[in-house]
Amino acid sequence: MPHKYHNFNTIIPEIESKIDALLAKMTLDEKVGQTVQVHINESNRKEMVEQLRNGQVGSVLTIYGVDNINAIQKVAVEETRLGIPVIIGNDVIHGYRTIFPIPLAESCTWDLDLIEESAHIAAEEATANGVHWTFAPMVDICRDPRWGRIAEGAGEDPYLGEVFGASRVRGFQRELSSGRKMVACPKHYVAYGGAEAGKDYNSVDMSERRLRDIYLPPFKAAFDAGAGTTMSAFNEINGIPASANRFTLQQILRNEWGFTGFVVSDWNSVGELIPHGVANGYKEAAQNAFLAGVDMDMVSGAYHRHLAELVSSGEIPETRLDEAVRQILRIKFMLDLFDNPYTDSINAEAAILKPEYLQTALEVTTKSMVLLKNQGDILPINTEEVKRIAIIGPLADDHHEILGTWHRIGRDEDTESVLDGIRELIPDDIEITHTQGCDLFGKRPTNTISAVTAAQKADLVIMVLGEAESMSGEAHSRAHLGLPGRQQFLLEAVHATGTPIVAVLMSGRPLVIPWMAENIPAILCAWHGGLRTGRAVADILFGDANPSGKLTASWPRTEGQIPIYYAHKNTGRPLGGVGGFQFQRYHFTEFIDEEVTPLFPFGFGLSYTSFEYSDLQVLTPKMSLDSTLKVRAEITNTGEIPGDEIVQLYVRDLVGEVTRPVKELKGFQKISLQPGESQMVEFEISVQRLGFHGLDMQYKVEPGEFKIWVGPNSAEGLEGDFRVE
Ligand code: BGC
Question: Which residues of the chain, if any, have pLDDT below 70?
């Protein structure tokens, strides 16, 4: 049965009539109340509930527990004059109680159905527990792994940002078994991921073309998938904070895209217009943000305190207030909150951690892991030969960090550590020792001696290393992207024993690991993989699962290469020269002291089997602007076990009226092949998808020559060409 999806970015005439009737009854204060979102905690509870009772709250965020939420809803529905329900928002980022891998990891599955499914499970659990609205997906493009919030998105590529963002919206907004509904909030609108130097909240200054070609498309795709809200970001864009930016909030979002949902500010981003230096107090901040198009104020209190006064004085037209309230009520009606404001507490517990959810989580986690190196096929571990294994490292028996940033109500006791996973899986005749070796971070002395002794007595070492969950996510940018604390020291000491090492690397971002990449024969990037991390790692290490994940963000060799991304421009002095003319050494776009290529490129990931690409056929070598590019290539599993391969298609527009990237991902397919099996993989891509914003800033596809690659990652592939006429 095909799934049914709710579309919240639409107009339904019967709902508009209901809104008309309600708006006609509302006082100025009650209208303002709808635009106010509050956070209720122990210290402000009394005051907030009173404010709610007076009809001065439209939404409450980050509260948990059905009884707690129902109690708040009861005040809104039964004790306010008009009984308008509140909408409850929460950060359901990568699972509610069943914690999935961080979104960056999830994106490495390149599996749209799975990504949708994990969002859907999160929605099932969260709505059964009173949540109506998730502040997700984060669809910010990020090309700077210093930025801690790279963990929350789908990496560096706008095309992946579009398709993964839309899948997550569909997952959240898919019909739920309970009949309830959830609305998604693609965030942070917009360009938040472009923060200078990867410092969170930092300024963003970029051309309108880059904004339109790279940063906006994932939002557009999320709204086209039916997302009914968005969140205005903290950052400024070209001198104007995103939460007071008429160009992005009005011109693009409303005028060009026709978005009919509502915009909520980020946490206090209305108040932050004051330190940004574009408002000289809360009143002016409220005026700037509201007139720009921020419909709901998350916690700053600026709307609550000043909006009524600004409307009464005529500084804000009442029509603008009516428009914002209409947009908010529209979503509340679409969520059926007026007819069905309460959540039945009987279902709350039963809805979480269902066995089938844990099974899906295991699948997502396994498929999100990326095998970065496997020299001499040391993996999967051969239990015929390897009888003594030393498991070393601060994350080997971890039950917390694996949950990743924004795990919220996820619990350590729901997780399985790598040590648990391995113990559960391996045959009895294998001897396991476990040594932590050192702390995760900090400079406390290591227990190197016991780690080294364990390694000396073992046939193989598994080292589980990486970042704490608190090292990525909001306000957790890093300037140094190596192993934290004394982990590198520990790794080198264990390496010196000569016992072969398999490194399992956990992180919320691409790390800088040149020494490891050079010296350690096998590296599995396991990210912060959620509650099934342990089992997934064990399955991969011992060959019960064949790794298939591929990177969605480039891994730099050194921090000095950042920002680093595959879809860069060619420049006038590209590496390797132009048109047969070789520049003198040092006159390329390069570094004198480091390679320009990444350590691991976008799209890269190994398997325990091997795939051969052959017979690229461009079936449409000449095309008109309204036709479809048809390409195929044969992929063969040339190894000995079944495996999944993510086949990627890239294009390059060779000459344009503005410069174009050297490669752009335009399609991919994930296929499963038995050993020896071949498949002709066919791509059909509308020529209209090959465009960009031209000199006049309009989207266009230009006639001319294109190159095309079908390959296993952004750095390799069969090459062909075609022409658009
Ligand atoms: C974050 C948002 C989040 C909001 C509500 C902010 O600090 O930037 O991503 O949705 O808090 O928790």
Answer: 577-586
